[in-house]
Amino acid sequence: MHVTRLVIKDFRNYHAADLQLDSGIHVFEGANGQGKTNLVEAIAYLGSLKSHRVSKDAALVRFGAQQAVVRAELAHGMRRLSIDVEINKSGANRARVHNSQVKARELSRFFTTVVFAPEDLALVRDDPSGRREFLDALLVIHSPRFAETIANYERVLKQRNTLLRSAKSQRIPADKLGTLEIWNDQLIELGTKIIVGRLDLVQRLRPHLAAAYRALADADHGADITMRVSALADAATLMDEDDDGGERGGDITVDEIRERFRTRLLQAQPRELDRGLTLVGPHRDDATFWLNGLPARITASHGESWSFALSLKLASAQLIRAESRTGDPVLILDDVFAELDGGRRERLSRAIGDFEQVLITCAVLADIPEPLRQHRIRIQSGTILERVAAATDGIESNTGIESDTEGEHDESQ
Question: Which cell locations does it reside in (predicted)?
Fold first, then answer.
């Protein structure tokens, strides 16, 4: 699936913009603060309902406006589709497919994006929450129903923590907490689904990760990923189902996960009451990234961490490509090439060359390998220009591009 037209209104620093796109590779070129990242961020938002730059949707709405609109026309083979999202500063966001309202979480059924930005180095180096978010976002793309499961788990977790804090402050013993068992049952049921989903996802992602790292680094450093599951107290592999509906192979069954979760929760209960906090469950789990049999978070160099983080995103794109009914995700590389040496730039260029649509942002065109400069869209002084460089000997054209931007621009754009 690729974007053929992007229309935005009151998004970031744009009053309005209307941009025509083709399949293939597009380079958004411009100095910092011109708004080039805002355009690809709008496309990325349609695929994930999240910004890769800010945590609050309100920051996406232009200053002085109450609502931003992002609309895209999509194509895949002979199929055509239009989707749009209203981002509201107050009130719920609204999503439509072919002008029919749908639940926002269902958009991933129709359109997906994979974004890599310098901030993604945190996946390798920072705390577990980012890694959990990364896995859960992939889960939702593959099975949109997981969005509801995750939301329900977070709701139950919040209620259980409230009960534990109340018990701590009032010195109420566990056997006097009549509702604790009810919350335990719900936490275990929902948490087991998330654990199973993550373990299965990791197994499917592993070969793509190893291949992507080999392609980028031009070496086999044994890139791998495993899950550390607090309910199991160790890394685990989910068993496969046989033809009779039973389970075989692997390390652990779904029923065993459920029972070990319950056991670990009961064991942790005295400490939970002491701290007023749930200490076992998917919210405490982590993914471990490996290079040469060692944890990448501790041993990887800066360059290796960059290659690993980028490999994770390429592996995600390959996994979506292999499993999606809507074709490739739109691959977005936001200011990535400036951080790579010449060899990695060339290898990344080859790795992304066959994706249906790739959107690249850069401040310096020389950072982008020549084969990727098929289509250039220059953003300069608040004006969007289109230039087809290699095929037209430097002839520029404004055809199909309209924009209306504010005079002031965010420094981060």
Answer: Cytoplasm
